[in-house]
Design brief:
Radius of gyration: 18 Å
Pfam families: Rrf2 (PF02082)
Number of helices: 8
Low-confidence stretches: none
Strand content: 5-15%
Protein name: RrF2 family transcriptional regulator
Mean pLDDT: 87
Cofactor: [2Fe-2S] cluster
InterPro entries: Tscrpt_reg_Rrf2, WH-like_DNA-bd_sf, WH_DNA-bd_sf
Keywords: DNA-binding
Distance between the termini: 31 Å
Shape: elongated
Structural class: mainly alpha
Length: 148
């Protein structure tokens, strides 16, 4: 299974924001986009979705920027990926034209089970876990020296 680029970017943005402590100035969407090497327009869409999910907050004006919420820090990665990926099937059995095997096919159910097993394996992992020990120094480096 492969995650969409949107979900991948949302996870990177979430991780980037999760390493900021309260003493630092909040980054803007443009700064986050630069630090995760993504176009600003893509990051703006991701920020909107993450804000809707309650994972982060945005503040306007002086002292404003992006900040991860307590819900965001403690969010299960499995839950977050489910929210971002949606409930669509892995294969397009009902696409146009629909698959001629769909009436008697067992593959669709097996793939749905595999997809749920994938998400379930991510359920015990939280965003807080993603930014611990080994990845924290790399994420902190992004704060001071965004990629060119």
């Amino acid at each position: 299974m492969r995650l969409t680029k949107f979900t991948d970017l949302a996870l990177r943005v979430t991780m980037r924001l999760a390493v900021i402590d309260g003493a630092e100035e909040l980054p803007t969407s443009r700064e986050v986009a630069a630090s995760v090497a993504a176009p600003y327009t893509h990051v703006a869409k991701v920020v909107s979705r993450l804000q809707h999910l309650g994972v982060l907050e945005t503040r306007r004006g002086r002292g404003g920027g992006l900040e991860i919420t307590g819900v965001g820090r403690d969010a299960s990665v499995g839950w977050l990926v489910r929210q971002l990926e949606g409930a669509d099937d892995v294969v397009g059995c009902d696409d146009e034209p629909p698959c001629p095997l769909r009436g008697a096919c067992r593959l669709r159910g097996a793939l749905r089970d595999a997809q749920e097993a994938f998400y379930s394996s991510l359920d015990p992992l939280t965003v807080r876990d993603l930014v611990g020990d080994s990845s924290r120094p790399v994420l902190l480096q992004l704060l001071t020296s965004p990629p060119a």
